[in-house]
Design goal:
Blueprint (H helix, E strand, L loop, with lengths): L4 E5 L6 E2 L1 E4 L3 H6 L6 E2 L2 E2 L7 E2 L3 E2 L4 E5 L1 H5 L1 H17 L7 H7 L4 H18 L11 H7 L8 E8 L6 E6 L1 E6 L5 E4 L6 E7 L2 E7 L4 E4 L8 E4 L11 E2 L2 H6 L1 E5 L9
Parallel strand pairs: 9-17, 11-18
Antiparallel strand pairs: 1-2, 3-8, 4-7, 5-6, 9-14, 9-16, 10-13, 11-12, 13-14, 15-18
Helix pairs in contact: 3-5
Length: about 270
Amino acid sequence: MLKADTSRFCVFCGSPADSNEHVFALRLCNRAGAVKYPVIAGLSVEGQENVTRKEHQIEAVQVRHVCAKCNNGWMNDLEAWFESRLGFLIEPQWPQLALPMIEALNSERNKLAQWLMKTAVMFSLASLQGEHRVEFSPTVTRKIKDGILPENCWVDSAFSKSVLSAVGGTITRVFYVKNGGQPIQSQVLKNGDGFKFIVQFNHLLLRIGQAPNANVTYQSWQGESPVRLYPTPAPKIPDNFAYEDIMKFEKAVVLETWKGCCGSIA
């Protein structure tokens, strides 16, 4: 066990941080065939040059903002649940029985949302510092261990058509917004007003987002539409939920709003 860092506290319970947490659990990386997978952390801001860190192995992507009790307790249980329910979906080869596996998630959608929210917090803490960094307040993170999520969250899933094996994610406060009759434009929401987090395991794409006071819609390029899983599952899986890649999936979300409803621009 690591010596407790008196300058840091567990984001989930407030105890001294004395444990390193993998952003992507090693058991899931193993299942996805990405144990020695090289990753590059980066920060992308519109109109500015991308900032990246030196390439490193995915198993080294860790944060020290949790305690051993949380890490070895409910967080470990959550990763075990994820592997037992979605393990076949994150393997390099997309399973033939993918549709019933996705439909079966409807009954455990709260658990999936909890896993995504926990992972979003860890991913944010491991991200590069920047003016558009997503930050979660203690009033949000302290409730995650009990499965309590912020209001106005939603979860959806999709298939990535990319043939390249990939494990990673993206988190942002930037949304495409359609305000009344105005053309679609990007907007950076103030911290606490909303976020989007996407995680990819090979062909599986999962997103959790929060968009207060806005109607979440999707733009389509080839008739694709994501599978809504939370809070209210879609009545049926769309005929086409396949996107070219994670970036097309990320850019698909469009918020329909009215003036001033989405909070302040950062």
